[in-house]
Amino acid sequence: MLLGASGFKCLAPNEAIAQQKILDVIRHNYELAGYAPIETPLVERTEILTAKGGGEIKSQIYGLRLLNPAKGAADDSKDLALRFDQTVPLARFVAANYNSLSFPFRRYVIGPVFRGERAKDGRYRQFIQADIDAVGNGSLDLLHDAEMVSVISRIFNELSIGPFTVRIGNRKILEGLLEATGLSSKKEISDALSSIDQLEKVGRKEVLRLLSKIGIENTAATDLLDLLANTGESSAVLANLKSKNLNPLFKEGVEELEQVVTAVKNLSVSDSDFVVDISIARGLDYYTGTVYETRLDKYPDIGSIASGGRYENLASTFTSRKLPGVGISIGVTRLLFLLIKEGLLSAESSSVAPVLITTTAGLEKYSGVYLNQANRLREAGIPTEVYLAPKDLGKQLQFANAKGFKIAVVTQEDEIEAGTISIKDLATRKQITVTNSEFVNTVKNLLQ
Amino acid sequence: MLLGASGFKCLAPNEAIAQQKILDVIRHNYELAGYAPIETPLVERTEILTAKGGGEIKSQIYGLRLLNPAKGAADDSKDLALRFDQTVPLARFVAANYNSLSFPFRRYVIGPVFRGERAKDGRYRQFIQADIDAVGNGSLDLLHDAEMVSVISRIFNELSIGPFTVRIGNRKILEGLLEATGLSSKKEISDALSSIDQLEKVGRKEVLRLLSKIGIENTAATDLLDLLANTGESSAVLANLKSKNLNPLFKEGVEELEQVVTAVKNLSVSDSDFVVDISIARGLDYYTGTVYETRLDKYPDIGSIASGGRYENLASTFTSRKLPGVGISIGVTRLLFLLIKEGLLSAESSSVAPVLITTTAGLEKYSGVYLNQANRLREAGIPTEVYLAPKDLGKQLQFANAKGFKIAVVTQEDEIEAGTISIKDLATRKQITVTNSEFVNTVKNLLQ
């Protein structure tokens, strides 16, 4: 009876506190770069969500239905569905509000999306996506593509979860390379991209076999994979790419990539935080230029923790206006549980308050004293819990340790009469006694 | 095609920024009182949500269904539904995690709930509820009831939306009064409570008629309504109540109320922020002791903006353990639009960043300079947007004014060559020119 729905996670306080830390860092850095929030609803009309093709995802959309519609009431629930990403709602929002928006339009959105896939390790049916996008009116400068890298690298530096690398590629380079091998039909190029996308999963030998099946000669395919494997320090990789001049598409991609990399450097992103990697394909029909992935250097198996890219036309299903965009999405729920599991993020404390006021002299007689202690700390901006149940000191300190408080305030009856307060540092187990007037400042200093 | 679903609001940046301000204040004060977040999923198994009676709300529950389930895959979507409040998920969470929780358990949760009712003015089908609850194991001290008043009054003081009043009542007093009029069956008392609940809506005369129909004599009914109308400064109202000794239930309610009020005062809640009002019924079968409502003094028609109370047994449908609780819920979405409409909350700026770097010397040649200006401000913690499109200064300043920036940084080509930067205060239209090295501190000072 008590089970939650499969694939829908509950966060206990320690996990919710850890998640809040991640969300705060993301929000802070999205806003630092001048991106403003919007909130699009979790429910859209089904025809909005299914307007654009999208094979696999269509089978994962949750529609709604009223369980017991009131008699006689019009019931439109059957035309409603839960969003599966934050991009389709953004496209509708921008198309619908085109006239009132200022372009380039910068927005972020942080919230849950829903996918009815089989729940398994690291896959959830409800998960938080934190998306940042810039959308242009007719055109959008490549400098926005560079800013995304700066924002993402600030976030992962601030989270202090170890070394990471943002990989920057460009789909035009990849498609130009495939054109140069002799492929010409859209179908062939799309199949080849799809094979290359699996490089890490199935290995070089298998990809060579797949590419040969599509019609790329073995030497050309080998050269191609060698070039794709050439990732690393951006100047060297770019110099190598610039030395080739395969076709206009390839050339355009290399020029774009170089502009982006130059701007990333102008934004003072550390060289150790990003590389050029032209093997990134990221989805097949969506991105048209810059593409990104982000890896934790010590946990390559985790895959990308922040991905995105540039799309030529955000809202083509909703408007005839050309609205190019670029964006990155962080899958917060998956990241949260990976970080906790690998010990990269502490989820030890179940308390947002550092201070517990214990109440062992009894609430009936002394609740006024204890509530006043709490109130003085709260007035000073220090989150404080008062233990409001009749237990002995041992039990109350057990509670303090279980929840992860830093400080317990321990005032016995004789101290109350004497006007003093004892403060126990729960880590060092040291206890000091101060006068009432020294109380708030002492706690403040202990917490610094 | 572009319409959102009826009853599901989109928040544009100015509205989302205003909402974020409310949510930040709520979260800050919930945490200040030592309440920790949890996150319960938006989707529960239908049997959890429908386990407890609840007439009207049952017709408003949205169930799920996969639109195009993949062939052969097990599809459990038909057993899933969207939550309609935050309390049922809390009850399941506490019952399921009973052994790992420390009691008294304090938690808050802020997130959307869904109700498939007809969308109309101020009623949304998806809206954010910000709930705070304390749950005891077997018993829960009344001091928790008092803390709720302190938290709520801190929130509305910090939001600075004008004078407000938290009304505190107790269901035992109300039920004791009804018993004293001669009603005895649960059904009669419940009907009478329901009539009293409509006092404000239908008026005194109509309620007298309804009460007489239920079987309360006219004199008794008149005395009752007179007593209920006697709200105000807590000591006087309490003294009056204590002078009567109608029956044990009434007496218990008065004693509880007095304890709560004493503790509210010990928590330094200002006398002008709360009153005793024993006419509050708040739902019929749910609350068993303390009940709260909160009104904006100048906008009585808005109704209660923060309501709640004490329930004897949170999770009786999920566990045989007795888990009493007390909580308050703030309906954030409704509050947001009311505050914006009444001009009590500014939703003028669409920018989270106070500073716009204009780029009129041209991005092709000078993007490095402009990106560096942005980067220096961001390093100093100042949210900054760079205008990354080729427009003349007039257009860029138009953009700055439309979005509500405070400062525009204006650096023309000759200034770049001379190593100076001009900073324009968009409110006063004053412009000053400083050297590169004075730049960050000047902006900082202007923003203070």
Describe the structure.
- 2 copies of one chain form a homodimer.
- Chain A has 448 residues and is α/β, with parallel strands linked by helices.
- Chain A is 41% helix and 19% strand.
- Chain A has 17 helices and 16 strands.
- Chain A has helices spanning 13-32, 46-49, 55-58, 87-96, 143-159, 171-180, 186-197, 199-202, 204-214, 218-229, 234-242, 248-266, 332-341, 363-379, 393-403, 413-418, 439-447; strands at residues 36-37, 43-45, 62-66, 80-82, 105-114, 126-135, 164-170, 274-276, 290-296, 306-311, 325-331, 355-357, 384-386, 407-410, 420-425, 431-435.
- In chain A, the strands form 3 sheets. An 8-stranded mixed sheet of chain A has the order 1-5-6-11-10-9-7-8. The first copy, chain A, has a 5-stranded mixed sheet with strand order 13-12-14-15-16, with helices on both faces. A two-stranded antiparallel sheet of chain A has the order 2-4.
- In chain A, helix 14 (363-379) links the parallel strand 12 and strand 13 (384-386).
- The longest helix of chain A is centred in the first third of the chain and has 20 residues, at 13-32.
- At the A-B interface, helix 1, strand 1, strand 2, helix 2 and strand 3 of A face helix 1, strand 1, strand 2, helix 2 and strand 3 of B.
- Strand 3 of chain A pairs antiparallel with strand 3 of chain B, so a sheet runs across the interface.
